[in-house]
Design a protein that fits this description.
mainly alpha, 11 helices, two-stranded antiparallel sheet
Amino acid sequence: MPPANPEPTTPSPTTPSPTTPSPTSRSEEPARSGLLQDPRLAPVLAFVRCRGLPRAAAVALLVALAATAFAGQRVAVPEFRYLVDFSVPVAEIVPLAHAVILATTLFSPMADLEQTSAQPMSRHRAVYLITLLALALGLTALPLLAGATSEVFVSAARNVIGYLGLGMLSARLFGSGLAWLLPLGMFGPTLLLGVGSDNTPEPWAWSLHPSTHTPAMITAVLLWAAGACASATAGPRQSERAEQN
């Protein structure tokens, strides 16, 4: 007797196996989180956060954006001594605000720990000061997006270098809460008395001179160097303990 034909079997639907992420995509997320949790970066992040740099940088960025919106405007110098017709671009005055805002981050709430640290903190402070300078120069360059000329940018960069140096000196001498003292103490007389009867800036009014004026640039660099040396090499101010309160 011939064998019965077997019933045809229909293939059962196969459920697609869940796609597993590629090894590269799986390693990207741990790499990002691991970078922030790197124990070597922990002291750096703590050093930056305790000084309030992210908040100060955000405020300085808002000021820079406002300056960019008014990049084409000029501020007339008051006729305090002589009848002069002298004006300064807004982009050359705003660096004063950048310098004052960033200089307030020189306060150290960990003065006691830094003083007793096994590692010398002068290198960390020096790197931090260079970071502040780079940030200030970057903010000063924003008006270039609104059509500011390269001459205006060079003058603004010179001014932010000099005023940041004065801010560092002021923070070192009087505390970070008074970091504005020396910059404003220089800016006020410059604005009121810095233009002579011949409608040109006085020799000492370095922030009003054109970008090609070499002595003004040298003065700004020397001010920054003096402020950086005072902030990086000297230990934390004893009165910083009182500033914590």
